[in-house]
């Protein structure tokens, strides 16, 4: 064996060992790991995962011409399996020419109004959730990779402030539940670490696919705080911070939760 091959072999062994050590030391858990075996199997099996029905619908909408320009998403972006791969791992992000971040559904609505000359889809609209699920599904299994920059970082800091701020009649913060008491039971269900790895998700409680905003509003109502309007910028700031906490965890969309 030449010295060059021996050196290459040592480098590969070191890299493999280092990566394994990194995985072993990462103690973060997605909500998937706190679910029972039956729900995990439901999420893993594309023929049993109810969220996949929305992904299929999103694929149909992707190819359907919309708006007065009669253009489809595919007309601009081509095959989503190529053009959308990894995109969802990098949102929220700041669109070109804008001064504030948008989440993935905000980006889809920008495409509709600017490129298709179509109406915005309202929050929790079935077609909007389906398109978001279809786009995010192209990144399933890829590590979350939030973008950075001075403007984004400022919004991310705002999100962390919201995460740690006590609010509502119960005077609770997100951190008290999802950091201090993660893994404990609340109403018989494990409290997750609040990593947004699977949105839009199908919740059995909802019997439908829903957005991260809907989940955050549920939390606000749960602590008896006033929920922000669905178009409030606080949701995007909070999502920015949550995606930072989940950096490196694999995207699961469409996830299934209790």
Question: Which key features would you list for this structure?
Answer:
mainly alpha; 11 helices; three-stranded mixed β-sheet; 258 residues; iron
Strand and helix map with partners:
Layout: H1 3-25, H2 37-44, H3 51-62, H4 73-77, H5 80-83, H6 104-116, H7 126-137, H8 150-164, H9 174-180, E1 185-186, E2 189-190, E3 201-203, E4 208-210, H10 212-222, H11 233-245, E5 256-257
Parallel strand pairs: 3-5
Antiparallel strand pairs: 1-2, 3-4
Helix pairs in contact: 3-7, 6-7, 8-11
Q: Describe it for me?
A:
This is SoxAX cytochrome complex subunit A. Residues 1-19 form the signal peptide. Residues 154-246 form the Cytochrome c domain. By secondary structure, the protein is mainly alpha-helical. 48% of the residues lie in helices and 5% in strands. It is built from eleven helices and five strands. The chain has helices spanning 3-25, 37-44, 51-62, 73-77, 80-83, 104-116, 126-137, 150-164, 174-180, 212-222, 233-245, and strands at residues 185-186, 189-190, 201-203, 208-210, 256-257. Strands 4-3-5 form a three-stranded mixed beta sheet. It is globular and about 50 Å long. The mean pLDDT is 92.
Distance between the termini: 55 Å
What percentage of residues falls in helices of 4 or more residues? Answer: 40-55%
User: From the alpha-carbon coordinates, what is the Rg to the nearest angstrom?
Assistant: 20 Å
SSE succession: HHHHHHHHHEEEEHHE
How can the largest sheet be summarized? Answer: 3 strands, mixed
Shape: globular
Mean pLDDT: 92
Strand order across the largest sheet: 4-3-5
Q: What percent of residues are in strands? A: under 5%
Low-confidence stretches: none
Give the helix/strand class. Answer: mainly alpha
Number of helices: 11
Structure summary, number of beta strands: 5
């Amino acid at each position: 064996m030449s010295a060059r091959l021996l050196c290459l072999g040592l480098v590969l062994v070191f890299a493999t060992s280092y990566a394994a050590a990194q995985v072993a030391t990462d103690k973060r858990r997605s909500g998937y790991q706190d679910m029972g075996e039956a729900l995990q199997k439901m999420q893993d099996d594309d023929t049993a995962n109810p969220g996949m029905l929305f992904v299929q619908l999103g694929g149909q909408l992707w190819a359907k011409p919309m708006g007065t320009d009669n253009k489809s998403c595919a007309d601009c972006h081509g095959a989503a399996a190529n053009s959308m791969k990894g995109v969802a791992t990098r949102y929220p992000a700041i669109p070109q020419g804008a001064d504030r971040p948008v989440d993935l559904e905000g980006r889809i609505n920008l495409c509709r109004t600017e490129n298709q000359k179509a109406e915005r889809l309202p929050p929790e609209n079935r077609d909007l959730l389906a398109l978001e699920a279809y786009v995010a599904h192209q990144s399933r299994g890829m590590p979350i990779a939030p973008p950075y920059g001075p403007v984004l970082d400022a919004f991310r800091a705002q999100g962390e402030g919201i995460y740690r701020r006590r609010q509502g009649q119960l005077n609770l913060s997100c951190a008290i539940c999802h950091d201090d008491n993660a893994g404990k039971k609340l109403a018989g269900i494990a409290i997750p670490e609040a990593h947004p790895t699977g949105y839009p998700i199908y919740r059995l409680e909802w019997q439908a696919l829903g957005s991260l905003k809907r989940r955050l509003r549920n939390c606000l109502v749960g602590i008896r705080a006033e929920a922000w309007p669905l178009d409030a910028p606080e949701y995007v700031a909070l999502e920015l911070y949550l995606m930072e906490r989940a950096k490196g965890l694999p995207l699961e969309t469409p996830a299934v939760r209790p």
